[in-house]
Each structure stands twice: as C-alpha cells, then as structure tokens.
Write a structure and sequence with these properties.
Layout: H1 7-50, H2 55-75, H3 79-93, H4 95-108, E1 111-115, E2 136-140, E3 144-150, E4 156-163, E5 187-193, H5 207-213, E6 219-223, H6 233-250, E7 256-266, H7 268-289, H8 298-301, E8 314-318, H9 324-333, H10 338-344, H11 354-367, H12 376-379, E9 383-388, H13 396-408, E10 413-418, H14 429-432, H15 437-449, H16 464-471, H17 477-480, H18 497-506
Length: about 500
C-alpha cells in the first residue's frame, strides 16, 4: 500500500499539489484584494477631502451664510460700505504684490492642506461640530530638506538644500512626505493664526510669513477656522484649540518637532490664540485648586483637548484686540455694529476678552494657597506682544494695557512697538516692500524659545538635545538654526514702493 506509484500515493500527491495551488491562488487573491481595498480607501479619503474644496460646496456655503451677514450689516452702521470700497482700492494698489502672493500660494509653495479635525468629531456623543472646509490647515515646508551649513564664523545653521517629492496628493494631500518620523530632531514649528475681523479670515493670509520662514528651516502650519456668521468666537476658539492639538500630535510626521512648537497670531488670530492659552491656564488652575471661581464656571471654559498651555514654547501676538469690552465702541466706529459684535461674541464679551481672562486667572492664583503657590508663569509659556503705533483698527494703547496686565499677573512677557506701522503692515505692506522686521522678530522668538537653554514644560519629554546639553555635548538649538538672512530671494520686495505707499494711504484697516 505504501509503494511509490500506488493509487493511494497518487491521490495524496494530487491532493497536496491541489492544496498548494489553492493556497498560492488564495495568497495572490488576498494580495490583490488588499491592494485594491487600500486603493479604494485612499480614493475615498481623497474624495472626502476634495469635496470640501469644490465650487459647489463653497457656493452652497456662501448662499447659506451671506444673507444673514448682509442682513446684519444693513441693519447696523453703514460705515462698512465705505470700508469695502477702500479695501478694493487697497487691493488694486498692491495688485503686483498680490499676484506674486497668489503665485506662491497656488503654484510654487511647498504646501499641503490637511484636515486637523476628525471627520466624525461632530457626533452628538462628544458635543463637537461636523468637519467643514474651514477645518483644514496648510503645512509649509514638509518636503523641504535642510542640511547643516557653517557660515565661516563658527555658527552652524540650516540652509535650504533641496525639495523632495511627496507621496501624498499635492496641495490637498492625504499621504506622507519625504520626511521619516523618528529619523532625528525635527524643525521648529510655527502655528500662525491669521486675522480677518472674525469674518473674512482665511489660512491663505499667512502665506507671506511661510514664504520667508520655510527657507530658514521652520515648519509653518497655518490652520483655518470658521468665521462669523458660520460660527461665533467661542466656536472659533475651539477650532484653534483643535488645530494646536493636531499639530502637537502630528507635526513630527511632516518634519517638525512637537517639543518646539511656537504659536503666532495676528489681529483676530492674536485674540483667539490668547483666549485658547488663557482658557487652558484656567483649566489647569481649576484642576489644581479643586475649586471653580464663581465668576467663571469650569464648564464654560473647559476645552476638550488634552495638551497644556506650557506644551507650547511661546506665544507671539501682533495687532490683536485684547480688551473686547473696551473695543466694542471702536468696532462700531469701523463698521461693525454693536449688535453684530454681541452676536459674534455670544452675548458674553468678558468670557472672550483676554484681559479679563488674565484677571480671572490671577484671582484664582491668589486663592491657591498652601503648597501649590501657583502663578500664571507656572502654567503659561512666555508671551511677546508686538503692535504698530499707527494702528487705527486696534489702537496701540490696548497692547500696552494687555502687556501690563500680563506682567502684573506674573507672566514672562516682552513687547515691541513698530513705529508708524498700521494694522496690516506686519503681514502685507511691509513684507511686500521688502521690510521683514516682523518676520525677523518671529524667527528670533522661535530661536530663543526653542533653544536647549530655554524654559521647558514640566510635562514634555526631554529631547536628545536636552540630554546632550546635560552632558555638555552638542550645540545649543538656537545656534543650530541659521541666522535670519534678508539676502535670500524670498526677502526681496514684490511690489513697488510707490504702490505700497498708495496702499497704505487707502488701507481700510
């Protein structure tokens, strides 16, 4: 029965061969099935992202929100019409600069747009809002590879060296970049929060900042957020808060170091960034003292994200409104009716007023007796407040008041005045004319706050540079960043000085 060539042996051999063929066929089928399933998931993911950027989507969004906004404006002060005319003239005067601006944003920038809000985060169970086209962030510099370079004077810095292709999907990518997470210390990260009077804000407005910082070895992330009347200021704060959490969780996948994140805000962005960090501080102080101040219920300020304010290495605020109660009359003078402002701020101005939030934090710190001995300096990163002395939209004294309020509360704060600058000079007129004072100041703050010798959060994990510093090895992070180089092509003027002067004259802001 066991002899070779017997019927039983032939049957076993045939069954074994058939089984092998079946397993090979199954393996091939599974491989193709996995490939096509992954391809189908990627196509669905791309479709979900691209649907937020279709013309139909935005037309529907405008149709839904424009009537409400126009109705509010026509029932308020008519000054906004004059402001609109001046805005159009302002854009025409600076048209060559805006053309270069648009070319960079849409064609030449190392930029990918990524969602920072989960698509299912609008479930009723977590109290969130559904994701919209405003819940995306532009990530600049993820494909820019830098190499360390010595300038011949003993200081090493990063020089832009080359650009690597991405495996994602271009400007609205869902894939990863040429950067390999965990391959070494990443770049410092700047989260830039754009302005826009809480009504016309858009992530594109920060492109000139990214255009200058990316060649200097900085990863720039500019999140969008919902505007009024699609959302009120409280919901804008939540959007910014989620964008910061996403950056801390994901920037290492795009070349950034989550332990070297700095937040910068301009105008409305400076206000929203201040509110986020101060509400985070309130959350931490409330948790530490185990009690809630009667003027600010804990549930009215609690943010759902998990990071702490000190996980941010520093915050720079430019041209921001900080005392909203005092600003209400000024908003009205510039065309935003008091009723619109009340609706915009959810009929609770003090809740979203940074100066009032600082005072509430200070009162709570004073109640934290015993072994805690808390101060705002223990729970907040360092602040830098910059403002133009010729700013008529948000008068300069408001920045001085906010700086004094922070300093009196024990926050480590510095300030700088831009003599003769208007509300938009830091982000539009000055850089278009080749004056990068604001960009240089942002970069210098990043170098200072993200250095090894800089103050670190007690909750953050020590980096390899920290370990080297303890052993006396390696260079300081600030020296490893290149010095700000205004000779780079991106720092050249992109608009004629005469037109910039004309734009400043017509500036509605």
């Amino acid at each position: 029965n066991g002899e070779s060539g017997s019927p039983q042996e032939k049957t076993r051999s045939h069954n074994a061969t058939a089984g092998a063929h079946h397993r090979a066929s199954s393996a091939t089928t599974n491989a193709f099935g996995t490939y096509f399933a992954r391809r189908h998931r990627n196509k669905r993911r791309k479709h979900r992202i691209h649907r937020y950027f279709t013309l139909r989507y935005h037309v529907n969004l405008i149709v839904q929100n424009a009537p409400k906004l126009v109705s509010l404006l026509f029932h308020g002060t008519p000054r906004w019409l004059f402001k609109l005319i001046r805005l159009l003239v302002f854009v025409m005067a600076l048209l060559p600069g805006f053309v270069a601006f648009a070319y960079y944003y849409f064609w030449s920038a190392d930029r990918i747009a990524l969602p920072y809000k989960k698509e299912d985060s609008g479930d009723a169970n977590d109290g969130g809002e559904p994701r919209t086209s405003r819940h995306f962030a532009d990530v600049y510099g993820s494909r820019t590879v830098s190499t360390r370079h010595n300038d011949g004077h003993g200081s090493s810095y990063d020089r832009q060296y080359s650009s690597m292709p991405t495996t994602g999907t271009g400007t609205t990518g869902t894939g990863t970049t040429g950067y390999e997470p965990g391959g070494g210390d990443g770049k410092p990260v700047v989260i830039f929060l754009t302005g826009g009077a809480f009504i016309i804000g858009y992530k594109m407005w920060g492109a000139l900042l990214a255009r200058v910082l990316v060649p200097h070895g900085v990863l720039v992330i500019i999140p969008d957020y919902r505007n009024f009347p699609q959302a009120n200021v409280g919901e804008m704060v939540e959007d910014v808060d989620e964008a910061i959490q996403w950056t801390l969780d994901n920037c290492d996948s795009y070349g950034g170091d989550p332990q070297r994140v700095v937040v910068v805000g301009q105008s409305a962005g400076a206000h929203l960034g201040s509110c986020v960090l101060l509400r985070k501080a309130l959350d931490e102080l409330n948790e530490a003292t185990k009690e809630t101040p009667p003027t600010v219920p804990l549930e009215s300020n609690h943010l759902r994200t998990q990071y702490k304010a000190r996980d941010i290495r520093g915050f720079m605020a430019a041209s921001g409104p900080y005392n909203i109660t005092a600003m209400q009359d000024i908003f009205h003078k510039h065309g935003l009716d008091r009723n619109i402002v009340s609706l915009m701020f959810g009929n609770n101005l003090n809740r979203h007023s940074p100066t009032h939030l600082v005072e509430q934090c200070q009162r709570l710190c004073n109640r934290a007796d015993g072994p805690l001995s808390l101060s705002l300096d223990d729970v907040l990163p360092p602040f830098c407040i910059v403002h133009g002395t010729a700013d008529k939209t948000v008068p300069f004294p408001g920045a001085e008041e906010y700086t004094s309020c922070l300093r009196d509360a024990g926050v480590r704060v510095t300030s700088k005045n831009y003599v003769g600058w208007s509300h938009t000079d830091p982000i539009i007129e000055a850089p278009m004319n080749g004056d990068h004072t604001f960009h240089r100041d942002v970069y210098d703050c990043v170098r200072q706050w993200t250095s090894v010798g800089g103050r670190t959060s007690s909750s953050r994990r020590p980096s390899s540079n920290d370990e080297k510093a303890k052993k006396g090895e390696g260079d300081d992070d600030s020296s490893m960043m290149m010095t700000f180089d205004e000779s780079l092509p991106v720092c050249k003027p992109i608009c004629w000085g005469t037109l910039v002067s004309a734009g400043r004259f017509c500036n509605p802001f």
